[in-house]
Amino acid sequence: RCAVRTQSSFDRITSLAPTQPYLSQISSILVPDMGVDGAYDDAAADVTYIIHVASPVPLLNGGESTDDYESSMLQPAVRGTLNMLKAAVKHQPAIRRVVFTGSMSSLGATLEAFETLTDEDTRRHEFKRPFAAQAYAYIASKSLAFQAAKDFMAEQPRGFELVHILPSFIIGRDETVTDASQIAKGSNGVLMASLLGHPRPPLGGASVHLDDIAEMHLRALTVDTQGGKYVDFL
Q1: Which of 50, 99, 87, 56 is nearest to 232 (CA)?
Q2: pLDDT at 130
Q3: Residue 138: which residues within 8 A CB-CB, separation 6 or more?
Q4: Residues 55-86: pLDDT tens digits?
Q5: Which residues contact 127 (CB under 8 A, 6 or more apart)?
Q6: Residue 45: CB partners within 8 Å, gap ≥ 6?
Q7: Model confidence over 194-204: pLDDT tens digits?
Q8: At 50, is the secondary structure helix, strand, or coil?
Q9: Handedness of CA 193, 199, 201, 206 (dihedral sign)
């Protein structure tokens, strides 16, 4: 079951070649605004596992931007995270596990936080407003969402487990790209900018391939956590 903002988005997904063998197994439910209270309540009904991948991302390949980062990036990231967890609570005990797609940025709230070693124990969540650029707001949004999930799960015991997957830049084929002008869309833009001769400053972390991240999400649904209620994956 795919939670999508518009039916046209779902129609586009199901028109792509990789989804064709699975059309009979895929359904959609509309969630126009994940920041609205109860946004995922219906989406989480009668399911066993949840993978939450939705969060605002910076415009890596240009386009219109906004300096209202609180409403465009930070609030949707945090509210979407909490709304999904609240929906899971409402549908206990059917839901066994929730997997969130976080980011390396979940562990450090500024670009400077990654100037030293970053691992699963890193927690550098301090940042200052106003944000100098969209990238700083994005990093802060991932950090805040990560903390919000941790705090939510710590409030009281839950009947489900929460897993965070925290990758760096994800690269790989993008089936939604249909012409050359879109080749740098999304996080692939980090790689393509260099290949196309556009200089950019060094970036912290390493890249990971889309296929590996997809497999990790699926494995995270069934991995044995030996009774733990919270697991972070890098």
Answers
A1: 99
A2: 87
A3: 56, 57, 58, 73, 105
A4: 888 765 444 455 688 888 899 999 999 999 99
A5: 109, 110, 136, 139, 140, 143
A6: 91
A7: 888 888 777 66
A8: strand
A9: positive
